């Protein structure tokens, strides 16, 4: 396993991190694996050298005790889901679950961070008090991505969580600017997100498909229509071009390896529903 610096924070992450949504196979149609399989995924990830784990989606309750406690061997990120008044309680709750004194990386939506002065002040206070080691801004929404590409990273933050994959490269300029400024870069949607199965992504003829095709093929159906523009931007594309000659479907490991060839990337999350899927994702590293 390769390890890379998360900006200038002193945190050195495995180049692949385990996403918090273990219930979503590539990231789509597998359903919810049982608790014992989630435990096996966490422990197998650690055995393979993964030292970075995401929380805040419900699956963090399955983090094995073996990975908890005050150690420098494992790192955890947490997504903020509250306002300034509730943030410290959220951090304390997850620290108690981990049996630790601090969250390594607190993730906050970019637009919330820049627009909510009270939240920004509270984040700075928690960093100063040592309850949060670093802050990462989530560039999920299209306006937040445009700001990243145009302006680059925010000075007060330590890094960004960015959409980037083989078919969605529109954030490359922002990633390059982050590299020049010494900021961390975490990657989401490396496999195209949870909206379509990996097979559908590879077998669909994207030259003739449109947004309605995604809605039709996705198990989420009409429920995703309100964000179909965003989903289409990082899901639709020639995933099959990653396949070796004679392969009907590209290996997921090829997609992850493509993302990690960018040296400005600190780490890419991957969400899996089984130990076998985790092994497949890492086979090209």
Q: Could you write a compact summary of the structure shown?
A:
By secondary structure, the chain is an alpha/beta fold. It has 11 helices and 10 strands. Strands 3-10-9-8-7-6-5-4 form an 8-stranded parallel beta sheet. Strands 1-2 form a two-stranded antiparallel sheet.
What labels describe this entry?
285 residues, alpha/beta, two-stranded antiparallel sheet, 10 strands
What would you note in describing this structure?
It contains eleven helices and ten strands. By secondary structure, it is of the alpha/beta class. It has an eight-stranded parallel β-sheet. The protein has one domain (3-197, 252-282): Alpha-Beta Barrel (TIM Barrel). 36% of the residues lie in helices and 16% in strands.
The CATH topology is TIM Barrel
Structural category is alpha/beta
CATH architecture: Alpha-Beta Barrel
Q: CATH superfamily assignment?
A: NADP-dependent oxidoreductase domain
State the low-pLDDT regions, or none.
24-28
Mean pLDDT: 93
Going across the major beta sheet, what is the strand order? 3-10-9-8-7-6-5-4
The CATH C-level name is: Alpha Beta
Radius of gyration over all CA atoms, rounded: 18 Å
Query: Separation of termini?
Result: 7 Å
Total domains:
1
């Amino acid at each position: 396993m390769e390890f890379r610096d998360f900006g200038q924070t002193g945190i050195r992450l495995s180049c692949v991190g385990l996403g918090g949504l273990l219930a979503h196979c590539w990231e789509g149609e597998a359903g919810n694996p049982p608790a014992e399989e989630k435990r096996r995924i966490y422990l197998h990830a650690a055995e393979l050298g993964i030292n970075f784990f995401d929380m805040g989606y419900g699956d963090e309750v399955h983090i094995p005790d073996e990975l908890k406690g005050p150690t420098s061997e494992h790192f955890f990120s947490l997504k903020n889901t509250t306002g300034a008044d509730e943030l410290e309680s959220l951090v304390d709750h997850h620290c108690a679950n981990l049996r630790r004194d601090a969250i390594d990386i607190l993730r906050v939506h970019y637009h919330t961070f820049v627009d909510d002065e009270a939240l920004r002040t509270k984040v700075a206070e928690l960093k100063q008090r040592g309850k949060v080691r670093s802050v990462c801004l989530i560039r999920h929404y299209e306006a937040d991505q445009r700001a990243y590409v145009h302006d680059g990273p925010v000075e007060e933050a330590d890094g960004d969580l960015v959409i980037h994959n083989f078919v969605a490269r529109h954030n490359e300029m922002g990633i390059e600017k982050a590299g020049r400024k010494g900021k961390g870069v975490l990657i989401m949607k490396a496999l195209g997100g949870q909206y379509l199965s990996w097979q559908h992504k590879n077998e669909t003829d994207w030259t003739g498909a449109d947004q309605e095709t995604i809605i039709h093929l996705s198990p989420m159906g009409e429920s995703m229509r309100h964000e179909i523009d965003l989903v289409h931007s990082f899901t639709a594309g020639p995933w099959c071009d990653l396949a070796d000659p004679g392969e009907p479907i590209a290996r997921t490991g090829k997609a992850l390896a493509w993302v990690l060839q960018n040296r400005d990337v600190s780490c890419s999350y991957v969400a899996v529903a089984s130990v076998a899927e985790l092994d497949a994702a890492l086979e090209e590293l």
